[in-house]
Amino acid sequence: MNFPTALKVVVIQKYMSFFGRARRAEFWWFYLFTMVLARTTEKIDWRLYLATVVIFMIPTFAVTTRRLHDLDYRGWWQIIPYAFLLGGMAVGHFAAVVVGLVVFVGFLVCLGTPGTKGPNRFGDDPLEGGSDQVEEVKPPAPGSDRGDPAP
Prior knowledge:
This protein is mainly α. The protein has five helices and no strands.
């Protein structure tokens, strides 16, 4: 999956989709794009930066959830690194902040590992078929065990 395809999938096709699985390329291209955009807008104006963060918050959580699904984890696991990081900042102790950063970096490393081969409880393997064509992912049927439960 290339950069334009990854952005199209995350920002347009699956902006609020928390179902299915995401390839590593889909996640990392989007992550790179949002980091560069955030740093650029931060240098221009704080209001533009804040708008960028708000606009890309939902797709960031969505693509991270789908990436975790590819690793056969529920999307809620992404809360843990933020809890450690924010908890460390709230405590204000240097060691707590360092622990939070280490947990966050460890989480990013986990997101870089290959997903489960073949279908898992969250859907089919996104690498099967080898095509960059993306099909629409529908939420699981009520009562099924595929994916996170709908709120």
